[in-house]
Every structure is written in C-alpha cells, then in structure tokens.
C-alpha cells in the first residue's frame, strides 16, 4: 500500500488507543479538558474520511448513500422540534459520523494490524485487571473512582458499598466493551489460531475472570458470556477446534477454582455480582425482561413521538445537559426509544433499519469467513454486534467500540479472504516436487521440439 494508506492506518491506530485510554485522560491526567476529550476521536474520523476520499478508498455504496441522505433529512427535521443547533450537531455526530468507519477499516487495515491490535488488547488486560481490583477495593470517594472531569463519587454504585470498576474508561460501560472485545481475540487464539505467546493467552484467562468478578457489572458478565457461548457452536460445528474449546474450558475451571481459593477479593467480587443480579430481579427479570422492555418502550414511543421527532441529540445525556443543565437520559435509556423520539417514526425507523442492515453485512462476512475455517470475525460479531444494532450511541465509548469492533470483524474476514487455499483433494506440492516437475516439463518440451525438427 502507498504512504497515504500508511497514514490512514496510523490514524485508525490513534483512534484505537484513544478509545482505550481517553477515559484515563478525562478522569486523571487532564480532567479540565474532559468535555473536549469527550469528542476527541471525532476530528480523527473526519481526517480519515478526507484521506480515504482523496485516495479512492472511501466506500461508495448504497449503504453509504443511505447514511448521507438520512443524516441530511434528520438534521433538517430536527429544527421542526426543539431545534437547538449545538444539540442537533451533537446528535448528528452521535448517530451518523462514525458509521462509515466500519467500511473504511477493511479497505486499509492489513491482517498484521488486526493481529497487533489483538496483542495490544491482551497485553493491556493484566494491568487493566489490577486497576479494576484497586477500584473495587477503594471506596466511592476515592481518587481511583473519580468520574470524568475528576468528579468525586462519579462512578456508578454496584452493591455492598462497592462501585462498578471502570478501568481506564470514563465509566463501566467502556470496561464491559473492552472485556468482550479482548475475549474474542483470546478465544480465537485458544481455539487453534496460536497467534500470541502461550504465556500471555494462559495468564489472560484468570485475569479476565478476575476483571469480570470485580467489575460489579452485569453487562460485563453478559457481554463476555455471549462471546464465550459461541465456543460451543464453533466446537460442535467444527470438531477440529474441540481440543481448543476443551483447553479453554479447563483453563476457565482452574482459574475459577484457583481464584476462589487463593484470592479473597475475587470471592467478594462474585458475591457483589450475585447481589446485583438478585436485587435486579435475577436473570429473567433483570436481564431478559429488561432487554425486552427496551423494544417494548420503542414500540410505545411510535404513538407518542412527533412526526418529525423532537430533534437529534435531545435524548442523549450531553444534549440534556446543554438544554437543561442536567446530564440525564431525558427520553429513556433504550436506544431505539431515543432514536424514535428524536427523529420521529419514519426517520427513526429508517435509522434503526440502517444500523441493523450494517450488522447483517458484518454477520454475512463473518459467516463466510467461518465457513472457510476462520472464527475471529464471528467472535467479534459476538463482542460488538448488539451494540452496533442497539447500543447507546449517545455514549461516545459505546459508539466507539461498536463501530470499531464491527470494522475489525470486516477487516479480519476480508484480509483473510485474499488468500485462496488449494482444494482439499489437491495436496500441497513440496519444493522438491515442484523442482522435479519443472525439470520434467522442460525435458518433455525439449524432446518434442527435437522430434519435430527431425521430421
């Protein structure tokens, strides 16, 4: 690839590192710039698009046209509602700005970039876990648990006097997304890819278990469980990867028993997680029904939303702060409910359909790669697919992980597809065989030429 593609890759890497570390900047290093850092990845995305257009690698597809037209219509319709320009611009960037990145990434990233990003995620896991343990041990008023802008007591409460660990992220939602994404790369390695050092993969299993245990987050548990559940599907469909699945299961059991026996804080974390599940109504009421309620609320908002909606950004926490001074979800926490109330039934449904269509494109690419024997794209769909369709894009970290994970899934599938394997019935020729065949072919052609000249 040319130098401009190298620059594009560097910018995507910068997006990656800011996604992982911008929370640390907002909480501890430069809290006074917290508001500006909230959208620090936006100008990077704009530059990526400008370079991609100049170099002819920006995706020109019906889906991109759909995105641009819908963004323009939603922007204009916003002024039929509340019509605050700053809120509308924020809502426009939340809903639309980062979506094309999903399709730019596979056009410029190499397979080596995907591998190295997985390595970075795994290498970061142990320090991230240690930081999460420290946050779990510290009290709600501790410096370790400040919120964005250095706000004392700015993290969410879990149970038993503990807060939900946030790691290097502004809030626990970022840690949950990070753990799910890292699990996808870890499982790809353990199920037979053998991409990373063995010591790193094996130590990542107990580190992952400990991080989930002290997170105090049901979302973290469910997100990682979704990725892990794909192991059963993969192992049953591809017996060759059963050995890796068994190794992963054994490592998980050993890690669980060892942590419970030797690490008291893990046992305490599990107790907090159990209390959170029980106080929230258990798995059925706290998880399944809550998830279903988001869709029920979205359906109910169809009859209440104005035809053209209340305006982009009104339902985000940033929009609410700009309008009323209070950071809250003014239109409900469900993403689809927010979208319909902001954009109205028609434009809102078109936007929801756009995100679902993007997810279907990513799933199709992942399944194609899976049929060719590659499982990483499918695991990445498990890590970020739900957020791409229904994640809270008003929350910048959730938005960033949703589009970046989808872009990684397409990159992993597309880069691998450039290599066309030989059919199974055709053995791979060895170097000596190639040389012998070459000499034989040359001798036969020379002998035929001499016979023709003799005639």
UniProtKB/TrEMBL annotation:
The keyword Lyase does not apply. Keywords: Membrane, Transmembrane, Transmembrane helix. The keyword Transmembrane applies. It comes from the Bacteria. The chain crosses the membrane at residues 65-94, 114-133, 169-187, 207-234, 246-266, 348-367. Residues 417-455 are annotated as: Disordered. Signal peptide: none annotated. Residues 442-455 have a biased composition (Basic and acidic residues). This is O-antigen polymerase. It comes from Chthoniobacter flavus Ellin428. The lineage of its organism: Bacteria, Pseudomonadati, Verrucomicrobiota, Spartobacteria, Chthoniobacterales.
């Amino acid at each position: 690839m040319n130098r401009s593609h190298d620059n594009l890759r560097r910018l995507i890497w910068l997006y990656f590192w800011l996604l992982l570390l911008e929370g640390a900047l907002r909480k501890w290093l430069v809290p006074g710039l917290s508001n500006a850092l909230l959208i620090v990845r936006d100008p990077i995305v704009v530059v990526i698009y400008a370079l991609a257009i100049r170099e002819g690698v920006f995706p020109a597809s019906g889906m991109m046209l759909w995105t641009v037209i819908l963004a323009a219509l939603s922007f204009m319709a916003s002024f039929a509602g509340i019509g605050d320009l700053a809120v509308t611009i924020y809502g426009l960037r939340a809903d639309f700005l980062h979506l094309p990145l999903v399709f730019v990434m596979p056009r410029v990233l190499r397979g080596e970039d995907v591998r190295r990003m997985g390595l970075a995620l795994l290498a970061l896991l142990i320090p991230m876990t240690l930081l999460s343990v420290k946050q779990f041990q510290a009290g709600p008023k501790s410096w370790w648990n400040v919120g964005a802008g250095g706000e004392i007591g700015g993290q969410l409460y879990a149970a038993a006097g503990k807060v939900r660990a946030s790691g290097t992220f502004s809030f626990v939602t970022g840690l949950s997304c990070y753990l799910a994404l890292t699990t996808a790369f870890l499982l790809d390695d353990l199920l037979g890819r053998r991409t990373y050092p063995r010591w790193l993969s094996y130590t990542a299993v107990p580190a992952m278990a400990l991080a989930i245990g002290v997170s105090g987050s049901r979302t973290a548990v469910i997100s990682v469980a979704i990725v892990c559940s794909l192991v059963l599907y993969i192992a049953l469909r591809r017996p060759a990867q059963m050995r890796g699945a068994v190794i992963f299961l054994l490592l998980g059991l050993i890690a669980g028993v060892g942590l419970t026996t030797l690490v008291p804080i893990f046992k305490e974390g599990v107790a907090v997680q159990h209390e959170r599940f029980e106080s929230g109504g258990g798995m059925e009421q706290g998880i399944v029904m809550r998830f279903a309620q988001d869709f029920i609320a979205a359906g109910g908002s169809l009859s209440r939303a104005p035809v053209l909606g209340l305006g982009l950004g009104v339902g985000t926490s940033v929009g609410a702060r700009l309008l009323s001074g209070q950071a809250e979800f003014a239109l409900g926490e469900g993403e689809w409910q927010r979208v319909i109330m902001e954009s109205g039934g028609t434009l809102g449904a078109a936007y929801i359909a756009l995100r679902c269509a993007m997810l279907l494109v990513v799933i199709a690419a992942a399944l194609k790669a899976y049929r060719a024997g590659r499982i990483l794209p499918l695991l990445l769909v498990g890590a970020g697919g739900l957020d791409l369709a229904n994640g809270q894009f008003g929350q910048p970290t959730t938005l960033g992980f949703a589009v970046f994970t989808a872009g990684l899934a397409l990159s992993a599938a597309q880069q691998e597809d450039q290599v066309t394997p030989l059919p199974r019935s055709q053995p791979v020729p060895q170097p000596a065989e190639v040389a012998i065949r070459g000499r034989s072919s040359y001798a036969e052609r020379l002998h035929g030429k001499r016979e023709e000249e003799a005639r």
